[in-house]
Structure formats: structure tokens, C-alpha cells
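Key idea: predict the complex, not the pieces.
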Amino acid sequence: MKTAAKHENKILLMGNPNVGKSIFFTELTGIHAMSSNYAGTTVSFMKGRFNINGAEYTLIDVPGVYSLSPTSEAEAVATRFMESGARAVICVLDASNLERNLVLALELRQYDIPIVYTLNLTDVAARHGITINAALLAKELNAPVVSTVAVKKQGLDELKRQLEAILAAPDGCKPNARACGKCADCPRSHSANPWVRAKEINRRVSTKTPSSPGFLDRLGDAMLKPFPGVPIAILVMAVTIAVVVFGGRGLRAVALLPLVRQVIVPFFTNIFTALLPEGVFLNILVGEFGIFVISFEWILALVFPYVLLFYVAFTFLEDTGFLPRISVLFDNIMRKLGVQGGSLIHMIMGYGCAVPAIIGTRAATSRKERIVITAAICFAIPCISQTGALVTLLSAYAWWMFPAMFAFSLFLFVAVTLVAGMFVKGRVAPLLLEVPNLLMPNPRAYGRKLLTRMKHFLHEAEIPMMAAVLIAALLAETGLLNRIAVHAHAIVSGWLGLPNEAVIALILGIVRREMSVAPLVALDLTALQAFIGGAVALMYIPCISVFAILAKEFKIKIALAITAGTIFLAIFVGGLINHAAQLFV
Amino acid sequence: MPINLYVADKKSRFQVTSVPNIGLLESMGLRSGTHVTIQNRYALGGPVILRVEDAYDLALGKDIALQIGVEQVAAS
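Result:
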């Protein structure tokens, strides 16, 4: 069997959404899959390699599904995986919600693939006063059942042992291994409706002792009530923004800016000035806009603190189950805008980075909703890198200027959503989601996810950022910028009221969103110019990575339309603000 | 007499009598015969939150809730 081709050594990881499937994947393969508390993040599947008894297997994290009846894309994908065959299936069951989970458990047995069941979230079940007799369940399912608390690594060794046992079993009908339908008492011959069987099994194996709900359950329920849910949600979001904005400013002022200005930049400046003669080449390296100056000034001191804090906060909120709760609470308002509450999750992701947010809209229930939310993200929602740069740019003038920009962003969001909703044909499906339990994130799982997110950010942003820095250094230090600036005079200076050199922001902004703000910080702008520059940057082309993802996820036509739209709107509205303000100044 | 879920009152326990033809609803465990209680309902055309079989919560948009028929089982 060891000689079998790798792709034939497939093991499928299956289960309902929100049962902790992705954590099993991480623990077994060592590759981190993003595990989240809301349905829809595992739209595309993940795979990773792992070893059992010296043989290598490919573990596939199949999208979470409630059943195998092909009512959604995810279910169709899950069914296809089962049909294409595998060496074994690990089916993760939620112990706190066994009956519904058993439906999928039973449906999986229709295929001739051995299954190991894991009874996960047994800690949450215990909190709800539910105990499940795993041995009896194993008998009912005619397959091994392992009790686990995956986030705490409990039961994983036993799972591996059971997996080893069924993989070692020769082909044929094995008791406790599979249901091939060949034996007389084969569970496959139970023709009963899986829903009826699930109810029956659940009644036999689980006992529920009345328990008073714990603090988290009561808080989780309270957060779903209009009162105090809405005030709590608004408070949580306000605190999150404060943590990111003030924390980011603090981190920049106290640690990163001194580090960059007093240690890193002087270090490189000393080395290169000692080695190289004065001239353009030296300036490109360590001049005011030199590569070794702005790459640290812009990336490390301007963007990094905000990115870090955003993902610290977002990952926490995501793992607690906060996001589905606000989708529900604000569904009514979102519906007035022509989308549904679930879109809020994509919108909030967009405040981090537009790329995963746009990929996340795959989970949207209709094409119309996808396009409307994607457009709103591109036009109106600054990514965290840009937000960091905007905070620094605007806070230098007055405390209210960043809040004003944030309000402007929300206004744009509403306007773009309404307008796009009018133009895109189709309808938006009503909200339909499971509200997961409120959870305290497990520190280990949380830490690892945060680390993965940061690594991913650095990996994705590295090349475009360096490209932007290189372009900036070449343009500014060779004098090329001044020559270009003359030609852009009419738009940049005449219409937008910005100094000619600000054209560099519009050039770099094509590559990275924060780069349409970063050069402005050093330009000695007036408060009005800073606000206009920030507003233009906010509406301007999201960035080259977003363009790529738009072209990939939709048609190139839509990518081009959105890009052209953002450029036009940015310049047009920026100029309007300028000229309107001139009337009062 | 079955009524639609959207207007069902919050204190009582209901049994589902009819569901619209939305596959995911059935997959999520909302079928004819399922027991539900209404946890929350939101103003301005917001959704309804159901506790299904005392086990888990589903949020249903108004448009779906209007199409689900329920019958009261016992007041609590």
C-alpha cells in the first residue's frame, strides 16, 4: 500500500461548519488552516501531508457542510470528495449539538470508506450539561468514536491510533471499520431516514442534565438581543478601533519610530556614505527618499504597528463568535442598503485587507451581493495599511481629522452600496446562518492563527511594497518626479489643490494602497490638503493585488470598471472637496 | 392552526409544519416536525433567531421566516 500514488492516499476531514475541523487539520498536518467561528471561510479546501506508521497520507480539509444533499456549492464539493474515494474519513462531530451532526455522520456511511468519528467540543457539551456515551455511540455507528477537545489537544493521540487501526485493516467488511453492505446486520441496510435515525441514536447515547447557563452562554444570548446586544456590539467595535488607532500610534511613537530614525536609518546611512561617493546613486540608497530610509519609515514604522494590532483584534473577535452576532443584529440596517447582515463580516475583513475580503465574498448567497460588497470594499473601505498611514497623516493636524475621514468612508460605503445595488441585476438572499456559541479563544490556537496571518501579510505585501519603495526612490532621487509633476500640474495642483510632487502618491498608489498616503506625510501639506490627499487615496485604486483578485474572481471587465471608477471618483470628489472648501477659506 | 414563524410569539414552543423549498434550511435541521422556540426578533424587518431542538441557534431573515409554518405545542 505504501507504493500507492500520493493522491490515492487521501484522508478526508469532514464535519458540519464550526465544529473545530480546521484545528484537527492543523494539529495533524502542522500546516495552519484558518479556523473561524463563522461559516464560509473554508470555501476552498486545504490539504496537507501527514504520516501514519511511516506511510504518507494527504489530509484534505473538506468544506464544512450540514449534509451531503447538494443544496449548496460546499455540499456539492463535499459529495464529490466522497465519490472520488479516499483511504479513510475523519468525521468531526459537535458533542454539544449531536443530533444534527449525526445526520452527516450517517450519510457518510453510504460510501464504502472507513470512518473514524471524533466527538469534539466535549467541553462545551459539558458546559451545557450534555454527556455522551462514546462507547455506545461507537456501537450505534459501528465505527470508532474518539472523544476530543481539539483546541486543547485532548484525544488526538487516540484519534491517530484509531486511524492507524482502520488504515491497517485489509480491504473487506470490517466490523468497527466500515459499512460495505455485505453483511446481514450491516448498518447500511438501515434504510431509515437519517434524520429519524439521528434522533433515535441521540436519544440513546446522550443524557442532558438541566444546567444553569454559564457566563459565556448568558453573554452570548444577551449579545443577540437588540438590547443590550446593539450597545455591546457598538462598544466592542469602538474599543477595537481605539485599540488599533491609539495602540498603533503609541507603538509607532514609542518604539518603532525611534528605532527606525535613531538606529536603523543612521546605521545604513553610515555604511553607505562611507562606501560610496556622493551622488544620485547614494541618494537612491539613503537620501530623503532613499530605499533604505523609506522602506523602514513607511513599512516598519508607518504600516506594521497598525497591521499587527488590527489582526490581534480581528482574530480575537473572529474566534469568539462576535462576527455572526453583529451580522444578525445589523441585518435590518444592511437590508435597507440592499445587502444582508452577513456582508458586514466581509466589510470588516476589508478594513484589514481587501484581498481576503473579496475572496470571502464567495460565501455570499448571490452574485449581486458579491459584486455590490466587492465594489463597496474597493471604493470606500481603506485597508489597515492605508488606515495606519491615514492616522499618521491626519492626526498631525487635529484629533478630529481621522474620525472625519472615517465618517467619510462610512458615507461612501452607504452611497456605493446603494448605487451599485441599483445597477447590478439580481436579488439578495435573506439571512440564513447558524449562530455559534460564544467562545473564549484558546490562547494556543489564537496565537498560531495570528502568527500565520502576520506571516501571510508579510509574504503577500513584501514584493509590492519593495516595488513601491524602489519606484519612489528612483522617481524622487533622480529628479524624474519633478519632470512628471509638471505634466500633472493641472490635475494635482489645479483641481485637487495639492503640491505638484503629490503626484508621486497617485503613481505609487497603483502598487500599494498605503503608498498613496505615505509620501504625503513628508510633504508639508496644509490640513485641507492632507484631508484631500487622504480622501483621494481612500477612493483611489485599491492596489495591484486587488486588481489581480478582481480579475481572477470576476471578469476582467469588472476589474477594469471598478478600477476606472475608483480613479475617476477619487479625482472628481477630491477636487470637489477642494473647490467647495476654497469657497469658505 | 399553523401560523408563520415571523409572527410566532416568543414564549411558546412550536413545531414546524411547513418549510419553503430551500435546501440549506433542511440541511441546517429545520424540517417539518422540528421543535423550535423564538429567541429574538429584530425591529425594522430584521431576522428571527430560533433555538432549534433546544440545541443550537439559527438566524433566519424575515423573508424566510415568513414562509415557515409553525404550530404551537405547549406554553412554557
